[in-house]
């Protein structure tokens, strides 16, 4: 008798990061981050969690950083 286990589909994990962690992750202060939000359409948009709280998708931020690295490497 062979036991077959059903595997669940793998769901990629993402997490929400707050502004202070975003600053550390990309190495810029909040004034630069908010400037990019106004001027760079490719910069990840924050997700509103409540009336006074926003966070960013870590995967979106990491993808944006990688695209900046790739762009800088080709120039």
Rounded radius of gyration (Å): 17 Å
Q: Count the strands?
A: 3
Helix content: 40-55%
- Count the domains: 1
Q: What percent strand?
A: 5-15%
Main beta sheet strand tally, sense and closure: 3 strands, antiparallel
Low-confidence stretches: none
- Report the structural category: alpha+beta
Distance between the termini: 61 Å
Name the helix and strand elements from N-terminus to C-terminus, one letter apiece: EHHEEH
Mean pLDDT across every amino acid position: 89
Major β-sheet strand ordering: 1-3-2
Number of helices: 3
Gross geometry: extended
Please provide a brief summary of the model:
This protein has 75 residues and is of the alpha+beta class.
């Amino acid at each position: 008798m062979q036991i077959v286990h059903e595997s669940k589909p793998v769901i990629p994990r993402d997490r929400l990061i707050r502004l202070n962690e975003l600053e550390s992750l990309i190495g810029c202060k909040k004034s630069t981050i908010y400037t990019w939000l106004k001027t760079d359409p490719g910069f990840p948009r924050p997700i509103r969690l409540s009336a006074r709280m926003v966070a960013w998708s870590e995967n979106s931020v990491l993808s944006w950083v990688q695209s900046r690295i790739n762009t800088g490497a080709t120039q």
